[in-house]
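Consider this:
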Amino acid sequence: MRWNPHVTVAALIERKGRFLMVEEETVDGVRINQPAGHLEDGESLIEACAREALEESAHRFTPEYLVGVYHWPRPSGDATYVRFTFAGSLGACEEGRALDTGIIRALWMTLEEIEACRARHRNEMVLSGIQDYLAGRRFPLDLIRYYGHNGIHI
């Protein structure tokens, strides 16, 4: 079997001391995560992050900086993930928009609430991204170079 790491993105969105999270059904049961998902063919990491935030939370999101890149091999050994976590500006909520398959609901949680349900996190990257954000980690988006079909895009 060929090794194939999964490239994912996550939207870290904070408003008045609360973080936008999603409750989702997974093979491991109901879990808590940031709006996150896989990079799709033909899109940049930044585009993927904005798309996933909208699909999973019904909120528009504009990534403004990279918080971190996280490499996580699942303990079961069946997959490896490389996650790019972005923070930025929250846009409008599209009321009535259907959420992505498997997403139960979007919710706003304090750091204390997130820490209290650590056993229900999708993976270790959920809390790590928040901790890095709160520690002030911010990297400019031009750190990431996207060579799309029409050349380089930042």
Helices lie at 45-57, 111-116, 125-134.
